Amino acid sequence: MQDTGWDHALKVTGDGEGLVGHAGAVLLRKLADQAGLTAALGSALARAGKFPLVDRGIAVVSMAVAIALGATSMSDITLLAHHAPVLGAEPSDTTVRRTLELADPRTLDKIARARAKARAHVWSLIAARPAGFPWLAVAGKLLAGWLVIDLDGTLITAHSDKEGAAPTFKKGYGFHPLGAWLANTAESLAMLLRPGNAGSNTFADHAAVLTAAIRQIPSRMRSRLLVRVDGAGASHELITHLLSLGGRRRTVLFTCGWMITAADEQAIGLLPATAWQAAVDQDGVVQEDKHVAEITYLMTRAAGWPQGLRWIVRRTKPSRRQMPNLTAFEKATGWRYSIIVTNIPAAGGIGGVPGSHHAQFIDVLHREHAIVEDQVRTNKAMGLRNLPSKTWLVNCGWVLAANIAADLAAWCRLLGLYDCDDLKDAEPDTLRYRLLSLPARLVRHARARVLKISRTWPWKDAFVTCWQRLCALPAPA
After folding, report:
1. Which of helix, strand or coil describes residue 255?
2. Which of 43, 301, 438, 475 has most Cβ atoms within 10 angstroms of its Cβ?
3. What are the CA-CA distances from residue 175 to residues 163, 201, 254 (Å)?
4. Mean pLDDT across the stretch 153-157?
């Protein structure tokens, strides 16, 4: 191997005084403080007669920040030791563990209220941006005023014996949490940790997570909600529950996957050729090789379901991988079918969205539910790839800290990086590499602490701009 010579000149010494590793983490901590989240969590976790050396709200936020930096265990909190001169002494891993052990149902409810209060303040700040609140655009149509909640489950592998771990439906071993994400902002609204053998279509779990997610939304913005659930979560009880959520002051629409039976295939077979219309993609471009039709009037199973539902069927040419799993009907017709059920009315569609009653739009609207997979992947990159403790309660606390980490990253992008093209939609690894891993040196001058960053760092301007914007955020009332 060629000797470049540089390794002989390299010396490792212990005199790096003032160096701050991962200096970009100050953005997330500053944001949590400015949003009132740190203080609110501290109040929620307070215990009468207990006076911990490190405020419990700071402990949770510190762990969330460490998770955003890439921490995979509670001992990784030591990474924040570099920030002690900036943020104060970091909590020990023992302090973090004791804090996460407080994740009982009563405390989790207090924490949920604290998060909702901070979220309401953050959303008011997001709405005040030049770009305003991020409304979704589907097939070229803007869903202004509508909040879109995506429910989905995921699997977390356990590599050792842990409380609650169990065999999963994919023949693995671990946990099967169920979460709710807001598509508008990529926030993690709620998550329920469940054993690995928890059912995919468990109504009680879906109802609990959806209720918790709606509680996270400021009351002033709950009037127009759109919920999307894939076929694994579909059940008669869930559809009935979703229909019951609407009222005089709140409209709740939904799209949900549907398990196709032989009776449904018989209904599909009765569709005339003229009923099929070309599908469209996420940009509104017509897809001539895929078709959509409404099948409500032919569904014999509809009689056993509540009034006001519609069924939309989609057909596509099967891929080679899908061929072995086709039904006899699909092999005979040469198409692969999928059905969704919705309560989007045929007359009027989604309020304020022209053309949203058409089957093509409802189809693409539901298919965009697939973006929840990106949120699941993001959450796994921020602490949910593995649960670090053998105890159920601590792992529940860890899931909470991971959700807070995902929210802080989303808020940072929305409030500090919204006009930075290469960072406003950055995923965790990109955010870490470009911003959070920024090296710096802490110096003191004229009784002030100054964090000095390199002039040659490619994203230094984005860091400075984000810091200035976060510092200027008004405190919650």
Report:
1. strand
2. 438
3. 10, 15, 27
4. 92
Tell me the one-letter amino acid at 91.
P
Q: Which residue has 């596509």 as its token pair?
A: 316
DSSP state string for 79-114: GGGGGHHHH-PPPPHHHHHHHHTT--HHHHHHHHHH
Q: Give strand ranges (E) for 106-183.
A: 137-138, 141-142, 147-153, 156-157, 166-167, 173-175, 178-182
Tell me if 395 sits within 8 A of 403, measured CB to CB.
Answer: no
Residue 401 tokens read as: 């800290």
Backbone angles phi, psi at 267, to 5 degrees: -65, -40
Q: How far is CA 426 from CA 8, 35, 150, 421, 456, in A?
A: 38, 21, 20, 9, 21
Distance CA(115)–CA(215), nearest Å, equals 10
* pLDDT exceeds cutoff 60 at 14: no
pTM for the structure as a whole:
0.92
pLDDT at 253: 96
Q: Of 165, 105, 159, nearest to 386 (Cα)?
A: 159
Neighbours of 30 (CB within 10 A): 20
Distance CA 350, CA 343 (A): 10
Residue with tokens 């500053």: 30
DSSP E strands, 197-241: 224-229
> Can you tell me whether residue 172 is helix, strand or coil?
coil
**CB-based contact 412:27 (threshold 8 Å):** yes
Nearest to 210 by CA among 170, 234, 245, 159: 245
The answer to whether 205 and 195 are in contact (CB under 8 A) is: no
The three-class DSSP label of residue 119 is: helix
In angstroms, the CA 167 to CA 38 distance is 37
Using CA atoms, how far apart are residues 408 and 122, in angstroms rounded to an integer? 10
| Diameter of the chain measured on Cα atoms | 82
Supply 184's token pair: 């508008």
Name the percent of the chain lying above pLDDT 70. 96
Neighbours of 404 (CB within 10 A): 27
Q: What's the confidence (pLDDT) of residue 233?
A: 61
Ranges 61-65, 306-310, 388-392, 449-453: which has the least confidence: 449-453
Strands (E), 203-356: 224-229, 251-258, 277-280, 286-294, 310-316, 336-342
Please, what is the average pLDDT of the chain? Answer: 89
Bridge partner list, 149? 182, 227
State the angle between helix axes of 203-216 and 236-244 in degrees (0 to 180), rounded to the nearest 10.
Answer: 30
